[in-house]
Amino acid sequence: MAYLLLNTLEEKLRQQDYPCSAATTLEILGRCLLNRIGLKNSESYAESITEVTATQLEILEKLNLKHLTKNEYIDNLLEHSTK
After folding, report:
1. pLDDT, the chain, mean
2. What SS3 class is residue 41?
3. Is 28 helix (H, G, I), strand (E, B) or coil?
4. In the chain, what is the straight-line distance between the N-terminal and C-terminal CA atoms, in Å?
5. How many CA atoms, within 13 angstroms, populate the side-chain half-sphere of residue 19?
6. What is the C-alpha to C-alpha distance for residues 66 and 44, in angstroms, rounded to an integer?
7. How many CB atoms lie within 10 A of CB 77?
8. What CA–CA distance (Å, rounded) separates 47 from 66?
9. pLDDT digits (tens, 9 = 90+) for 43-58
10. CA angle 77, 82, 83 (to 5 degrees)
11. Segment 65-79, tens digit of pLDDT
């Protein structure tokens, strides 16, 4: 399945004339991290996602996935990340 996903990403990038390979694109997108900060022995914490770079945003736009950067989507993702 991973092979099919990688090939699909490669094809989508080619259709958009994006100059990077699927592997390079995944490396670029992989630099966006979830940060969870809390005190030791406490159930309270704060979460955030690192700021999306211009290159990451360009890739997401080309793949029609810009919604992944919207607060509503991220808030929903974070809400379910601990359940």
Report:
1. 88
2. coil
3. helix
4. 26
5. 1
6. 30
7. 13
8. 21
9. 888 877 788 999 999 9
10. 95
11. 999 888 888 888 777
Phi, psi of 36 (to 5 degrees): -125, 120
Residues spanned by the domain of 32: 2-80
pLDDT band at 20 (very low <50, low <70, confident <90, very high): very high
Q: 3-class DSSP state for residue 7?
A: helix
| Backbone φ and ψ of 22, nearest 5° | -60, -40
Q: How many whole angstroms separate alpha carbon 83 and alpha carbon 57?
A: 28
Number of compact structural domains in the chain: 1
Give the pLDDT score at 82: 62
3-state secondary structure of 51: coil
